[in-house]
Write a structure and sequence with these properties.
The complex is a heterodimer. Chain A is α/β, with parallel strands linked by helices. In chain A, 36% of the residues lie in helices and 27% in strands. Chain B is flat and about 75 Å long. Classes of the chains: A alpha/beta, B mainly alpha.
Chain lengths: 252, 241
Amino acid sequence: MTEVLRARGITKSFGGRAVLRGIDLDAQAGDVVSILGGSGSGKSTFLRCLNLLELPDAGRIEIAGTTAPLDHDRKGRPRIADPRALNALRAKTAMVFQNFNLWSHMSVLDNVIAAPVHVHGQPRGEAIERAHGLLDKVGMTGFAQHWPRQLSGGQQQRVAIARALATDPDLMLFDEPTSALDPERVREVLDLMRALAAEGRTMLIVTHEMAFARDVSSRVVHVRDGVIESMGPPDAMFGAGASPAFRAFLAH
Amino acid sequence: MMDADLSPLVLLGGGPDGWGPALLAAAMLTLAVAAAAMAIGTVLGAALTAALMSRRRWLARAAATYGLILRGVPELLVVLLLYFGAPGLLASVAALMGSPAPGSPPAFLTGCLAIGLVSAAYQAEVFRGGLLAVPPGQIEAAIAAGMGPFTRLRRIIAPQVLHRVLPPLGNIWQFNLKDSALVSITGLAELMRVSLVAAGSTRRPFLFFAAAMVLYLVLTSASSALFRLVETRGQRWAGGR
C-alpha cells in the first residue's frame, strides 16, 4: 500500500496554551480517517497543521513523498524553510472548509478551474472540460455560470468539493464540512463524501457526524486534550472495545 | 470700449476679447493637476496601506501619524507649506551653507504633490478598508490550494479589493478635482486662477465664476459617470445594485 500521510510528533501552542501535544498519524492510499473529539480538543488545528495553514511548533509531516519544509528561526519559532516546497506540498492536498470559502468574485466554473490553471499550469480548455465533469459528479450540472452567492450552503459545499477534486489531490482534508449547513442540507454533502470514499479517495475528515464516521471510515481517531486518546476501526471504536474516554465523548 | 459693455458671448468666445480658449486650457490644466495628484496619491497611498498593515509596529504608527496629520489640516495649508514654506526653509539652509538661495519651485509639480500627499492619506484608508473586507476564509482557501503570495494577490485579493474601492476612489477623485482650485494660490493658470484673473480684468465676476462653475461641473459629472460605468461592469458577482 502507498503511504499518503505520515505525521510525527505534531505540537502546537497558541499563546502558551498547548493545543496539540504530540500527534502521530499515518494514512494509506484509500484510507478514510474520521477525526472526532470535543470542541477545543485540537482536531481542527491538527488538520490545519497538515497543509501548514498553521505552522506546527515541532514535528514532521510527509505527504505523498514530500516532506513539509519546516524550520525554526533563531528564537525557536516555527517557519517555512522553502516557500516553493511549501506550495508543492499544498498542491498535493486539498481542503474543504466549514464555511465553504468559495471565491465570491468568481463563477462556479472559475472556482473549480482556478487551482488547476493558476497553480498547476493546466491548459484552460482541459481544465474547463474536467471541471464540467466534476460539476456533474457533485450534482451541480448547469450551475457553471452561477455566482457562489446564488447557491444554497449545500450547493456551495458541493462546488467546494468539486474545486478540491479539480487538482486530483493525494490527500483531501475536510474541516467540519457539514457543520455550517442547515440540517436538511447535510445529507447531500455526506452522500457525496460517501461516494468519494467508495471510489478510493484518501480522506481525513474532522466531523461531528457520528453515524457517518461509523459507516464510512476505515479508521476513527479520538482526539482529546491535544493527543490521540484512542483510535481504531469503527467496529472496535463504536463497539465493546471502545475506550472509556471515547464512550464518555459519545454519550455526551 | 470697456469690457463691462461686451456681451457675455464675446467675453466667453474665441475672439480677441474672448476668454474661451484660456478657460478651456485652464480646465485642462485643472484636470491634469487632479489626475497627477490622484496618481501620486494611489502610489503613495498603496505604500501607506502596506505600512499601516505591517507587522512592524513603528512603521504602522508612522503611517497612521502621516494620515492623522494630512487629513487633519486644511489642504490650503499643505499647498502653502510646500510652495512657500519649503523654499523659505531651503533658502535659510542655503544661506547657512553659503550657497545661493533656490528660486520658486515649479507651481505645477508642487501643486500636484500637495494635493497628492493629501489624497494619499485618504486613499490609504480606502485601500485598507478594501483589504480588510476580503473574507479571510477565501484567502485561506487560496493558500490551501497552493497559490503563492503573488497569485493570491492577482487572482483573489486584487479583484475583490478593486471592486470595493472603486466607489470611494470616485469620491476622492472628485475631491481632488475640486481641491486643485487651491493650487491657484501659487499662480498656476488652472481654472480657478484664470477665472479670477478674467473676472478681475473684465469686472464681470458673476459671468466668469458662473463659467468656472459650469466647467468644474462638466469635469466632475463626466468623470463620475465614467467611474459608475467601470463600477457596474464588475458588480454582477456581488449582487448588483
